[in-house]
Amino acid sequence: MKIRLTLLACVMALLGGAGAASAQPRASEPLRPRWIQKLPKPTNPTFSYEVESAFAPTLDAAREKCLAGLIAGSGLKNGVVTVSDYKSKEHLSQVWENGKLTERVDYDSHTTTQAQGSEVKLYVEDIAEYWERDRSGDYYLTKLYAKSELGKAPLFDNVELTTRYGARGLWRSAIIPGWGQFYKGSNLKGGLFLGGTALLAGGIVFTENQRSDYRRKIMRTHDTGLINSYSTKADHFATARNICIGAAAALYLYNLIDAVVAPGARRIVVKKRKPLVKDYAVAPSVSPDGSPVMAASLTF
Predict the structure, then answer these.
(1) Stretch (H or E) spanning 84
(2) Torsion angle of alpha carbons 234, 240, 246, 252, nearest 10°?
(3) Count of C-beta atoms within a 10 Å radius of residue 92
């Protein structure tokens, strides 16, 4: 009795540990988004889609690194980026120097820098993000941006994030079971549908061959005992064949329903063009100590 109780306690402890581990998500979504491997195509040449990735202990730090990489890739080398919080009097100052982006919060309603010279604008739209966590809890973040060229106002697309595929998955799974699931990014499910269909098809062929073989044996003998034995075995294989046929039909139907209803990897749908939503405006400035810097603001 003690041994049984001890084993039961160990099992419960393992299940509890597994539940606690599963409570901590390892990714922001169950399937990796399609836009990570295949970027959408802009409908006009005024902007481009870009992906930035960063690894950091927190999501906020990873987001800052992604933004820093985007700024660096746009030709902005050094300077101060000032973002005004329109809901309060706080100002978030981000300093981009020597490849690092640091920030400081000032509880002042007025900026300390003065813009001088002609303004250079960089228009950026934050579209989507996907993160994964390792065993230590650190984040690997991938972000998708729409970004203009420096100093040129873009006409951003109106994009929509969706996990639905509609007929795209249906007609593929109708031709080859599991193909629609593979297309939607559900590789495990697609493999199960494809493998299950192949296994059941093999079962249909095998059982039908065995049934036919015993039927031929019945025609070649006049022994009543053998005829009864062969007939029974032929009936058994016919039943097994029918079961395989029914199971294959049910699996194929479920495969079609899943291809339409089940969500897939998140993808981006470009619906139409839209006006600018938010941008980073960058201009030459002078810091409080008199040194030349670059100032920028985030507009909503």
Answers:
(1) strand 79-84
(2) -120
(3) 14
Q: How does 95-118 read in b/e, with b if 16+ C-beta sit within 10 Å? A: bbeeeebeeeeeeeeebebebeee
CB–CB of 59/92 below 8 Å? no
| Closest by CA position to 120, among listed 171, 77, 68 | 77
How far is residue 197's CA from residue 203's CA, in Å, rounded to a whole number?
A: 10
Say if residue 34's pLDDT is above 70. yes
> What backbone torsions phi and psi does residue 290 show, to the nearest 5 degrees?
95, -5
CB 40 within 8 A of CB 31: no
What is the pTM assigned to this prediction?
0.62
pLDDT tens, residue by residue, 77-111? 444 443 433 343 444 455 555 555 554 444 443 33
Distance CA 110, CA 143 (A): 31
Count of residues making up the chain? 300
Query: Which of 38, 30, 39 is closest to 187 using CA atoms?
Result: 30
Nearest to residue 295, comparing CAs of 95, 160, 131?
A: 95
Q: How far apart are CA 183 and CA 160, in angstroms?
A: 19
CA distance 157 to 275: 8
Angle at 183 between CA 52 and CA 187, to 5 degrees: 85
